[in-house]
Amino acid sequence: MSFPLDYSGFKTLLLVLALPPAPMLLLAAWGGWRLKQARRGGGSLLALGLVLAWLSATEATGEALSRLAGQPPLLTPAQVDALKEQRDGAVLVLGGGVRRQAPEYGMGRPKAITAERLAYGVWLARRTGWPLGFTGGIGWTARELQQSEASIVSRVAQEDYGLPLRWAEGRSRDTRENAANTLPLLAQDGVRQVLLVTHEEHMARALRAFEAQAASLGLRIVAAPVGLRAAGPMSWDDWCPSHSGFERVRYVVYEAMARVGGR
């Protein structure tokens, strides 16, 4: 089996090595090897790697990293209601991945992250009365996909929510292309402000890309983050490994890498 050395192949390899828990496990393995060779610091490195591996799968670490990266402000229901009287807006949902085939449905379906964004986008569209759009094609690493995210989500929005998409942009491969391919379509239809729906971890990168494109089109971008954690103290189980904690830490680290990489 060959491994293509194009951009998508390099990105996949980089993510495997850079995202948790790989760095922590490699650190622990190095410490274990040094310990076996009776070299100095082996036990400390092994313990540090295991502790970091534990923390990398907790909600507490994900929340701490998210706050450190800078969380976008919440769009409150009162702020949403204040937009009802305005008729120059649109709700735009950014894709986060789809499953090529969900056996229980016999067709492609949004992944959980996309489904959560779509649900919030539908809620915003109904609350404001603004039309709903979606942007997402076949990402750089989504080699298994044969349909764009937009085509799958368009069907789901119609069948599951009874709310057809006004815009369904399906050529984009990353966030910068989402902005470049979608905003001109909205501007041509008279849109002047856009509620941008994506997860809070992704919002900083999304705003950077969309605001750069919006400036020349006379569009105002309003952050509508989803997935925010309710304010309050951490509980003991937030420090225990969980699937949600693991996914959140990986997402925050991925977004930090993507901001540095400019994608």
Automatic annotation (TrEMBL):
CDD domains in the record: YdcF-like
Keywords: Membrane, Transmembrane, Transmembrane helix
InterPro entries in alphabetical order: Cell_Envelope_Assoc, DUF218, Rossmann-like_a/b/a_fold
Record's keyword annotation contains Transit peptide: no
Positions of transmembrane segments: 12-33
All copies of domain DUF218, residue ranges: 90-257
Protein name: YdcF family protein
Gene source species: Pelomonas margarita
Taxonomic placement: Bacteria, Pseudomonadati, Pseudomonadota, Betaproteobacteria, Burkholderiales
